[in-house]
Write a structure and sequence with these properties.
By secondary structure, the chain is mostly helical. Helix content is 86%, strand content 0%. It contains six helices and no strands.
Length: 157
């Protein structure tokens, strides 16, 4: 579990720092690689951690981004806010869906991805960017599904 927590925090931090460095155009790539991983890991961690612990992990990752690159200030703030909101929505939906972990993870990832995709770029860049939101959402859902598959396979062994 410590490895999953570390990967989660590092992936979120890497996503935030790359957004800060490259700007909004990197968002869909980050959404697929890093945020998709975070969505799937967040669902796995939901089965291992309490909600308060998950929120602390999310906020810590946002603070870590800021500490590593203070110029990423609004990126870190936007990330902490959007991931906290997405985590809460994801956790609620995950807890309400019946069925396998894969069904619960992918179902909750859709609403978590939508929440994060709307809030993050809007807060980080101060403007609503529908094309970035749409690309991020699609990439997060697709990336989350792929990462969930690998996490599920890894945990079965």
């Amino acid at each position: 579990m410590k490895l999953a927590i570390s990967i989660y925090a590092l992936a979120m931090t890497a996503a935030n720092l790359s957004i800060s460095f490259f700007g909004p155009w990197i968002s869909p790539i980050n959404a697929f690689l890093f945020i998709g991983l975070d969505l799937a890991l967040r669902d796995w961690l939901h089965t291992k951690l309490k909600a308060q612990q998950m929120i602390l992990l999310i906020v810590f990752s946002g603070l870590l981004t800021y500490i590593l690159n203070p110029a990423a200030g609004m990126i870190a703030v936007a990330s902490a806010i959007s991931f906290t909101c997405a985590a809460l929505v994801d956790w609620f939906v995950f807890s309400k869906i019946n069925g396998s972990w894969m069904k619960k993870a992918n179902g909750s990832n859709v609403v978590g991805a939508l929440t994060d995709s709307i809030l993050f770029p809007t807060i980080a860049f101060g403007v609503l960017m529908p094309h970035i939101i749409a690309m991020q959402f699609a990439a997060k859902v697709f990336g989350g599904a792929i990462w969930a598959f690998f996490i599920h396979k890894f945990n079965k062994q």
